[in-house]
Specification:
This protein has about 70 residues and is an alpha+beta fold. The protein is built from 2 helices and 4 strands; from the N terminus they run βαββαβ. A hairpin with a 5-residue loop joins strand 2 and strand 3. The chain binds iron/sulfur cluster. The site of iron/sulfur cluster (SF4) has 15 residues, from helix 1.
């Protein structure tokens, strides 16, 4: 299986701290002190499938997936 290079970011201005992302995918996100989400470095460990699922369950659309170019 091929691994895809990608990164994930969370727009802190629109994240409302619902917690679905870090609750369901703690390997991709962690919780800030204020309850909002912080994306982890997914360079070597992240699953693009999981990241896509996380972006779909985020109620505010704050999760963005950036596909690598190489
Ligand atoms: S699911 Fe969306 S709104 Fe909820 S903490 Fe994660 S990024 Fe923020």
């Amino acid at each position: 299986m091929s691994e895809q290079v990608f990164s994930v970011t969370v727009d802190g201005d629109i994240c409302m701290g619902a917690g679905y992302c870090y609750g369901s995918y703690p390997q991709l996100f962690t919780e800030n002190a204020d309850g909002t989400s912080l994306a982890r470095d997914t360079t070597s460990t992240g699953s693009l499938t999981d990241a896509s699922k996380a972006s779909q369950i985020c109620p505010s659309g704050a999760i963005e997936i950036h596909r690598g170019k190489d």
